[in-house]
Every structure is written in structure tokens, then in C-alpha cells.
């Protein structure tokens, strides 16, 4: 029997906001507000917010295990990372991406980034763009792994410490690039056995 997928990539929902905000606060100096998330999920026509969810088994504990009542492990769903994408006139803008600190280094940031690039291709964008702090080499490595190029610097872009941002971009406007990306994405799907609802089951408002 083949192993059951434990990871699901899907559109962010209003119920995810508390878990997403908890990661946001751990990951960034300037976290988004609850209102911003609600707007991006439920009101913006341009926004395609994503989460990566892990199903994990929690063993029965305490009196339930002692008395053998409902002693089976139960499944818990945990949002391990999230991302944000705006699609405006042919330009897909990655507005945010983060993985819970306890879940980093397992390829899950890569799934989120690749999932958003694939969504951008599906939306017919010509280019994916993002900004990244010049000090954030970890994220830059991830973007470079996916062939994003540094095309400029936005001076004093971050208002908490006036740090500069690199402007990084990936062209997705020709068939060869899109086919190569698709082959790579299929490799990721078989490596991590995740279910990609983000690209296959799109809510009606998107
Ligand atoms: C950036 C971030 C999303 C990466 O997620 P992650 O799950 O840890 O990364 P992955 O395990 O998927 O790694 C993918 C690639 O990222 C790069 N990377 C990840 N961790 C790294 C590290 N500690 N040092 C250097 N490069 C690293 C590598 O290129 C890696 O590919 P490799 O494993 O083939 O070398 C995560 O570190 C994070 O949430 N950081 C805080 C928020 C943030 O900075 N967001 C970006 C804002 S622009």
C-alpha cells in the first residue's frame, strides 16, 4: 500500500488566520494584522493566499488510554507555513512566505514557493517578483534555487530598520520555461507526496 500524503497545499481560509499569525509573529519584525489577512483571503480579487498543512497523529493519552476508551491516535492538522501572492496585470508578486521555525529545513518553504510559482503560471502571469532583505541569505538561496534573478535594490525598503531590499524576479513568459518548471514541480510532488489543492481546487472567488 502506498503511503498516505501528510502535507496539503491549499488556499488559506479565515479559520487559518490564528495559526498563520502565530508563524508571522515568529518570522517577521513587521507582522500583518488580522484585518489584513481577512482582507486578502475574503475581499481582494488579486490575492491568492496559500497554506501548507501537515496532518499528524497525536497518540491517545491520559484516562482515554488508561480505560481503553477512544484509545486510537487522533489526527491533528497543523499549518506549518504560508505564503501570499498578488496577481496584477501580468505580474505575480510574492508578498510573503514563512515556515514555522520548528518546521524549517525540511523542504517545506520550497513547496510553498514552487506552489506559488505554479499558481502564477496558471494565472497567466509573465513574471514573478518579490522583495527580500539584503541580510536574508536563507530566503535568497531559496529564490535562487528557483532561478529568481536579482535585478535591483530598493533602498531603505523596510521601515523598521531602513534595510534595503533586493528586487528579485523570475520570468515565466515562455513555454520552455513553463515546461521545465512543471517537470521540476512534478519531481517535488513525488519527493514530498503532498496534495496540491492550491493549483487544482480553486475557490470560486479566485
Ligand atoms: C525562508 C524560509 C521560508 C525557507 O523555508 P524552509 O522550509 O526553511 O526552507 P527549505 O527547507 O524548503 O529549503 C529550501 C532552500 O532554501 C535555502 N535554505 C533553507 N534553509 C537555509 C539555511 N539555513 N541556510 C542557507 N540556505 C537555506 C536552500 O537553498 C534550500 O535548498 P537546499 O536544501 O537544496 O539547500 C524560512 O527560512 C522562513 O520562514 N524564514 C523566515 C521568514 C522569511 O525570511 N521569509 C522570506 C521573506 S522574503
Report what the structure shows.
With 206 residues, the protein is of the alpha+beta class. It has one domain: Gcn5-related N-acetyltransferase (GNAT) (Aminopeptidase), CATH 3.40.630. Helix content is 33%, strand content 30%. The protein has an eight-stranded mixed sheet with strand order 6-7-5-4-3-2-1-8, sandwiched between helices. A hairpin with a 2-residue loop joins strand 3 and strand 4. Helix 4 packs antiparallel against helix 6. The longest helix is centred in the last third of the chain and has 18 residues. The two termini are 36 Å apart. The mean pLDDT is 94. The structure holds coenzyme A (COA). Coenzyme A (COA) binds next to strand 4, helix 4 and helix 5.
Report the mean per-residue pLDDT as an integer: 94
What is the CATH C level class, in words?
Alpha Beta
Please, how many helices?
Answer: 6
CATH architecture: 3-Layer(aba) Sandwich
CATH superfamily: Gcn5-related N-acetyltransferase (GNAT)
Distance between the termini: 36 Å
Structural class designation: alpha+beta
- What percentage of residues falls in helices of 4 or more residues? 25-40%
Q: Trace the largest sheet across and list its strands.
A: 6-7-5-4-3-2-1-8
CATH topology: Aminopeptidase
Number of domains: 1
Low-confidence stretches: none
Strand content: 25-35%
Number of strands: 8
Overall 3D geometry?
A: globular
Rg over CA atoms, rounded to whole Å, is 18 Å
Biggest sheet features: 8 strands, mixed
Bound molecules: coenzyme A
What string gives the helices and strands in order? EHHEHEEHEHEEHE
Amino acid at each position: 500500500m502506498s503511503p498516505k500524503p501528510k502535507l496539503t497545499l491549499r488556499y488559506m481560509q479565515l479559520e487559518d488566520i490564528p495559526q498563520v499569525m502565530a508563524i508571522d509573529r515568529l518570522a517577521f519584525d513587521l507582522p500583518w494584522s488580522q484585518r489584513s489577512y481577512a482582507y486578502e483571503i475574503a475581499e481582494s480579487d488579486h490575492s491568492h493566499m496559500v497554506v501548507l498543512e501537515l496532518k499528524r497523529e497525536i497518540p491517545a493519552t491520559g484516562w482515554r488510554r488508561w480505560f481503553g476508551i477512544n484509545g486510537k491516535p487522533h489526527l491533528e492538522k497543523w499549518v506549518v507555513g504560508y505564503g501570499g501572492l498578488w496577481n496584477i496585470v501580468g505580474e505575480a508578486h510574492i508578498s510573503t512566505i514563512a515556515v514555522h521555525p520548528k518546521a524549517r529545513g525540511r523542504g517545506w518553504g520550497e513547496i510553498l514557493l514552487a506552489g506559488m510559482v505554479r499558481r502564477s503560471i496558471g494565472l497567466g502571469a509573465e513574471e514573478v517578483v518579490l522583495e527580500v532583505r539584503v541580510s536574508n541569505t536563507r530566503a535568497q538561496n531559496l529564490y535562487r534555487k528557483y532561478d529568481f534573478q536579482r535585478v535591483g535594490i530598493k533602498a531603505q525598503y523596510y521601515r523598521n530598520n531602513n534595510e534595503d531590499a533586493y528586487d528579485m524576479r523570475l520570468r515565466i513568459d515562455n513555454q520552455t520555461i513553463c515546461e521545465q518548471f512543471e517537470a521540476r514541480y512534478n519531481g517535488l510532488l513525488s519527493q514530498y507526496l503532498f496534495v496540491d489543492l492550491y493549483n487544482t481546487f480553486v475557490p470560486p472567488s479566485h
